[in-house]
Specification:
Elements (H helix, E strand, L loop, with lengths): L9 E2 L5 E7 L5 E3 L6 H7 L4 E7 L2 E8 L5 H14 L7 E3 H7 L1 E4 L12
Parallel strand pairs: 2-4
Antiparallel strand pairs: 1-2, 3-6, 4-5, 5-7
Length: about 120
């Protein structure tokens, strides 16, 4: 648990960030931040991400995503913010993108070795 709330949902003991969860019965994209701005984007660029997918209240899958794989989103959001100088309300990361580009770490017979922290 974080002592303060500044855009991250959770950080584990290694410093990796669990950004968002998703109930696949209700939505198909992960929301990010309700006032996304360059400060929050800069924080997002510093950590690898973990996405948890639920069906109702049952955990269905967990994906690990190196931060580099999310750069297209960060670039797009930065350009959008720079064009109008207004915070972006909950830009999305599609589940399809996470499944295609992330490393599925749950369920798995063995947990993969995650890369070292930055």
């Amino acid at each position: 648990m974080l002592k303060t709330r500044e855009g991250n949902d959770a950080v584990d003991e290694t410093g990796r960030q669990e950004l968002k969860t998703l109930n696949v019965d209700r939505v198909t994209s992960f929301t990010t931040h309700h006032h996304l701005n360059p400060t929050i984007i800069a924080k997002y660029r510093k950590v690898d991400w973990v996405f948890a997918v639920y069906r109702g209240i049952e955990l269905e899958a967990v994906y690990y995503m190196p931060v580099e794989k999310l750069e297209p989103f960060f670039t797009k959001w930065t350009e959008k913010w720079n064009s109008n100088q207004k915070d972006i309300n909950n830009p999305k990361i599609p589940l399809k993108y996470v499944v295609e580009h992330g490393l599925k770490i749950f369920p798995a017979d063995q947990q993969p070795d995650l890369p070292p922290l930055r």
